[in-house]
Design brief:
It is a single chain. By secondary structure, the chain is α/β, with parallel strands linked by helices. It is 45% helix and 9% strand. It has a domain of 159 residues: Rossmann fold (3-Layer(aba) Sandwich), CATH 3.40.50.300. Strands 2-3-4-1-5 form a five-stranded parallel β-sheet, with helices on both faces. The relative contact order is 0.14.
Length: 248
């Protein structure tokens, strides 16, 4: 916006009839011999900003690249999360989690802020702690398993990547009914990551009984209880009950 200056109105010009009026010259007041002469203000010289060192430039570029990677990893909706609108006690508990072999399960109804709290934690782990993070939502997990389980060599390499990542994050785990391949992969991931002391972070809105109901008959009999036992043993549970509903 352009700032407009207001000029004081000039007086009407004096009309003369052939006479030229003298232009009065202002007289400076007499100097006080006892006064100290005012100091002349001098502007401090403007110094150019210090150029980046090679190390500073490399660190800045690394931060920018990591921020770019996070934008590709985290959906826009969750990057725009307002932390002030999340349940403060649950958010504090999630963000208090420290990296270690024991993961985190955020459990509760839809709309209680589980996913937003989890992404704030993942952002810290990826951006500030520079952890290697792999993320899946409910749909992406199913697609990834279907693609990876085409050939044994492909499956093993895929499982190895997931088991050795610093952090593995599942959003809406057990959202849909599982295939046997998904059950086998999930059981193997929890088993191997526990052995490698690598944590799993997951959000879900169903109970143990509902998890078993969404497994195949064979999976429920062979892997259901052992999988739940591994999850409880190697993850801390943060409950998002009805009172934890995020504000809109």
């Amino acid at each position: 916006m352009t700032e407009t200056e207001t000029l004081d109105a000039f007086p009407e010009p004096l009309l003369t009839t052939g006479l030229t009026l003298p232009n009065p010259t202002p007289t400076a007041p007499a100097a006080d011999p006892g006064a100290t002469a005012p100091a002349t203000a001098t502007a401090a010289p403007q110094s150019d900003p210090e150029p980046e060192t090679w190390e500073q430039e490399q660190a800045r570029r690394a931060r920018e690249e990591r921020a770019k990677q996070f934008r590709g990893m985290c959906p826009t909706l969750y990057r725009q999360t307002d932390a002030a609108r999340l349940p403060p006690d649950r958010l504090a508990k999630v963000l208090a989690w420290k990296y270690g072999p024991k993961g985190l399960l955020l459990v509760g109804p839809t709309g209680t802020g589980k996913t937003r709290c989890a992404w704030l934690l993942v952002r810290r782990l990826f951006m500030e702690e520079r952890r290697r993070v792999m993320c899946f939502d409910g749909i992406g997990w199913g697609i990834s398993v279907a693609q990876a389980y085409g050939e044994p060599d492909t499956t093993e390499r895929w499982l190895d990547r997931l088991c050795k990542a610093d952090v593995l994050f599942f959003d809406d785990l057990f959202k849909a009914n599982m295939t046997e391949a998904q059950e086998q992969a999930l059981y193997g991931i929890f088993e191997r990551r526990a052995a490698w002391l690598r944590p799993v972070i997951a959000t879900m809105n169903i109970t143990d009984g509902m998890i078993l109901a969404r497994m195949t008959d064979n999976g429920r009999a062979d892997r259901g209880e052992p999988l739940l036992r591994r999850m409880r043993e190697f993850c801390e549970v943060v409950s998002f009950g009805p009172g934890a509903r995020a504000s809109r």
